[in-house]
């Protein structure tokens, strides 16, 4: 390790994050009656829009006018999900009660159908090291699944003590989801070969689920007695969980995490507040931001579904119900990171843990580690990290 970087890490420089203003882009395409953006990646937002009563998979490139339709001609419904490792994931419904796990290489037709022949219901949620993950429904029960490349062959990760399980997300050797035992959902973490799992459901919780994972952080929700739902952040064990639910909220759900940022939605207590608010966190309940207040006009329920960042900008996608147009509309929030880019673990301080998080992202080939913005991960990204770390956050 370079001496200057080592000294900077030992110094453990501390600075609060600098928060610039949000820009909101309404992605709703012309002619659609509804639109939804549940995922995003470099220069891309993915989801679906409803035209003439038919939900159609597609993607955007930063504007409503950029909508690209991927709906297969023989389907009654389709939706696009995450873009991972050069593959756009999605689901196609050729008939009622039938869902096919599909992939569009580089977001282009024709699609690849990886649904196993023994089922007509399968969901692909993510890709890890070239292998899609998700779940397959067999004899009425969901089975946590890892596919063998872009084929219909799959491995069942469902624990023997469970009646069903799902994989919802994957990153850097970790798979997350839920395992149902005696009809109770338990937040689940698989690592290594997936032959065993970690139960993230803490004592006192009546149920839980994990839906997002990045750099060793997992997010989801816990249900406590009285039907109380709390947004949760874990770091690999049930005991590590952090309650992200902000003060004054009686419901919260976290749906995704990236480089120390988390997104989801909350519901506040009190008259006139009984609706969902798109939300952003930075590792604690006190860091909660209400993204719905950034929207122009009048909105009801709003949802932040996924978060991502590049060298200089934070991106959030989701949707909201626009009272002015009487419909759900896909939304993109963006905000400059303003020099706090090297706060890799998102805790508001520059410490040795930021270097470790950066190194993990670099080793995993994560584009978030491309600090010099040249499109490649090289030694120059380490030098850019060092320079930014030494300069500190403004």
Q: How would you summarize the topology of this molecule?
A:
Elements: H1 3-11, E1 23-26, E2 34-41, E3 44-51, E4 54-60, E5 68-69, E6 77-84, E7 87-95, E8 98-105, E9 112-113, E10 122-128, E11 131-138, E12 141-147, E13 154-156, E14 164-171, E15 174-181, E16 184-191, E17 197-199, E18 207-214, E19 217-224, E20 228-234, E21 242-243, E22 249-258, E23 261-268, E24 276-281, E25 289-290, E26 299-309, E27 313-322, E28 327-336, H2 352-363, H3 379-391
Antiparallel strand pairs: 1-28, 2-3, 3-4, 4-5, 6-7, 7-8, 8-9, 10-11, 11-12, 12-13, 14-15, 15-16, 16-17, 18-19, 19-20, 20-21, 22-23, 23-24, 24-25, 26-27, 27-28
Helix pairs in contact: 1-3
Task: Sum up the structure in keywords.
four-stranded antiparallel β-sheet; Methylamine Dehydrogenase, Chain H; 3 helices; single chain; mainly beta; 394 residues; 28 strands; disordered N terminus
Protein architecture, described:
With 394 residues, the chain is mainly β. It has a single domain (17-369), classed as Methylamine Dehydrogenase, Chain H (7 Propeller). 9% of the residues lie in helices and 48% in strands. The protein contains three helices and 28 strands. It has helices at residues 3-11, 352-363, 379-391, and strands spanning 23-26, 34-41, 44-51, 54-60, 68-69, 77-84, 87-95, 98-105, 112-113, 122-128, 131-138, 141-147, 154-156, 164-171, 174-181, 184-191, 197-199, 207-214, 217-224, 228-234, 242-243, 249-258, 261-268, 276-281, 289-290, 299-309, 313-322, 327-336. α1 (3-11) crosses α3.
């Amino acid at each position: 390790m370079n001496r200057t970087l080592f000294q900077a890490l030992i110094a453990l420089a501390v600075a609060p994050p600098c928060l610039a203003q949000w820009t909101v882009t309404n992605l709703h395409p012309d002619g659609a009656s509804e639109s939804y953006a549940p995922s995003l990646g470099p220069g891309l937002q993915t989801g679906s829009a409803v035209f003439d009563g038919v939900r159609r998979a597609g993607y955007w490139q930063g504007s409503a006018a950029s909508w690209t339709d991927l709906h297969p001609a023989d389907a009654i419904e389709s939706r696009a999900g995450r873009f991972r490792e050069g593959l756009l994931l999605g689901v196609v419904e050729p008939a009622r009660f039938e869902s096919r796990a599909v992939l569009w290489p580089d977001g282009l037709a024709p699609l690849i159908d990886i649904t196993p022949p023994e089922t007509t219901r399968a969901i692909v949620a993510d890709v890890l090291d070239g292998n899609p993950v998700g779940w397959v429904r067999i004899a009425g029960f969901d089975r946590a699944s890892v596919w063998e490349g872009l084929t219909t062959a799959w491995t069942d990760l469902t624990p023997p003590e469970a009646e069903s399980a799902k994989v919802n997300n994957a990153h850097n050797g970790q798979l997350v989801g839920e395992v149902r035992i005696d009809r109770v959902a338990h937040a689940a973490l698989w690592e290594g070969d997936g032959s065993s799992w970690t139960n993230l459901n803490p004592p006192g919780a009546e149920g839980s689920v994990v839906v997002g994972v990045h750099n060793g952080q997992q997010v989801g929700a816990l249900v406590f007695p009285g039907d109380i739902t709390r947004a949760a952040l874990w770091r690999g064990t049930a005991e590590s969980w952090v309650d992200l639910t902000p003060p004054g909220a009686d419901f919260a759900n976290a749906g995704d995490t990236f480089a120390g940022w988390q997104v989801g939605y909350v519901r506040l207590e009190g008259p006139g507040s009984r609706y969902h608010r798109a939300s952003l966190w930075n590792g604690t309940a006190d860091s909660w931001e209400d993204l719905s207040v950034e929207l122009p006009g009048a909105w009801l329920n709003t949802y932040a579904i996924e978060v991502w960042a590049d060298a200089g900008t934070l991106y959030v996608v989701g949707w909201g119900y626009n009272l002015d147009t009487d419909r759900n509309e896909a939304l993109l929030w963006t905000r400059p990171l303003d020099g706090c880019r090297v706060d890799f673990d998102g805790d508001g301080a520059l410490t040795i843990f930021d270097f470790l998080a950066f190194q993990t992202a670099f080793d995993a080939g994560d584009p978030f580690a491309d600090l010099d913005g040249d499109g490649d991960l090289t030694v120059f990204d380490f030098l850019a990290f060092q320079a930014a770390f030494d300069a500190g956050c403004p």
